[in-house]
Specification:
By secondary structure, the chain is of the alpha/beta class. The chain has a single domain, classed as Dinitrogenase iron-molybdenum cofactor biosynthesis domain (Nucleotidyltransferase, domain 5, 2-Layer Sandwich), CATH 3.30.420. The chain contains 3 helices and 8 strands; from the N terminus they run ββββαββαβαβ. The strands form 2 sheets. Strands 1, 2, 3, 4, 5 and 7 form a 6-stranded mixed beta sheet that branches. A two-stranded parallel ribbon has the order 6-8. A hairpin with a 2-residue loop joins β1 and β2. α1 runs parallel beside α2. It starts with a strand and ends in a 13-residue tail after the last strand.
Length: 120
């Protein structure tokens, strides 16, 4: 399974579309096999969810995300886990163990993207 995490370096970023990079983890048998950092190719409506789904991502982990991106991920059968914080690898390990649950932190105010993780 391929899992992507919206990040600033290796830390989970509060707003999916405005992250610096995506950490992409390839997993098998409940463990991380490989990981790579992919620079964010740019935030424009509808692009990033399709970009990641086209790469074969099956799960996206983020601090928060706009409803439009959530809808596209859902249409592409990509599981969305929101409300995550901290280190990306730790979050993926928690997800694989069944210990990371989505809080459904959908961002409604893109003009306040820097504080997106603060509103619920």
């Amino acid at each position: 399974m391929k899992i992507a995490v919206s990040c600033n370096g290796t830390d989970i970023w509060a707003h999916f579309g405005h992250c610096e990079n995506f950490m992409v983890f390839n997993t098998a048998d409940g463990a991380i096999q490989t990981s790579e950092s992919i620079p964010n190719p740019g935030h424009r409506p509808g692009f990033l969810p399709n970009f990641l789904a086209d790469m074969g991502v099956e799960v996206i982990i983020s601090g928060g995300m706009g409803g439009g991106a959530v809808d596209i991920f859902n249409e592409r059968n990509v599981e969305v886990v929101l409300g995550a914080q901290g280190d990306a690898k730790t979050a993926v390990e928690a997800y694989l163990q069944g210990n990371l649950q989505s809080t459904g932190s959908i961002c409604h105010h893109h003009e306040h993207a820097d504080s997106c993780g603060e509103h619920h």
